[in-house]
Amino acid sequence: MSIHDFIGQKQVIDRFIGQFRSGMTSHAYVLSGPSGIGKKTLAREMAKTLLCTEEPSRAPCGRCRGCKSFDAGSNPNFFEIAPKTRNILIEQIRVILDDITVRPANGKKVYLIQEADRMTPQAQNCLLKTLEEPPPYAVILMTASNFESLLITIRSRVVHLKLGRYSDEEMRMILRMHGKDSSDIDSAIAYSEGIPARALAITGSKSFVETRELVFSYLFGNGDGNPDDCELNQYLSGNKDALTDCLNILESAYRDAMLILCGKTSSLINWDKRDKLMEYAKKSSIQALIAKIEELNGVRSQLKRYINHQLAVDLVTLVPHEV
Ligand SMILES: [Zn+2]
Asked: What domains are defined for the chain?
């Protein structure tokens, strides 16, 4: 694997490689984007490229000592830190700053700070001094889900590389690279909003398939006209992790019903359920569906704050949901 085999994020990679090959590599980069988009993976590929001892047009060569030791996890010029607790503490940054003053025998030294937006303000201020006057051989790579939560003084001294969501075709290539080629790939891609880690978690997940079937039984009933609320309620009560999937699946169904009402059936997420969704949409209205989605968002934000799991399950499955 090399940065040149990385699927997607072409603009980001072209910008970095362009700077690297022209000798204009920045002393600091922040890769930002949602959780699961591949920030850490790409940052490591950038590090490997920077530490290759071949000339830039051939890096990473995969054969030199720099590349081989990087792949073996033993390159002495690569340092990586991640949050130890909730935050990255000033002590962790001090370890980097102690090391950064020691000149390498040759080439560069690369530091990767994972989830840099979780540095405490003290840790960020501590790092700032080095970003103001970095030694010429050092490159600091950072990843952040939320770029804006870094201090403005940090943000103004780095190159910001923003990772975008992947196209369906790129997602398919990534899933295939991970050995996923089962029949549920398309629905995993549809549910994952262009984020590979989400699609990987869904593909082949028995619990996701089970949750989805139960959610649709709940919405449409089991053919006898009586939606089976109890079954979904009991299932979610005993499966804490399934509630998030349940909320996402319900939302996708409501969005699909809205698309049907707007006559846009070609981009349905739940294409395999379209006949039932059409029946469902006929009995509903755009306003009612928007209200349903708002209710789901309400449960999501309550879950983040104080509500207990069972109460959230009851709110989702026991409130009247006739369309
Ligand atoms: Zn190399």
From this structure: 3-162 (3.40.50.300), 205-318 (1.20.272)
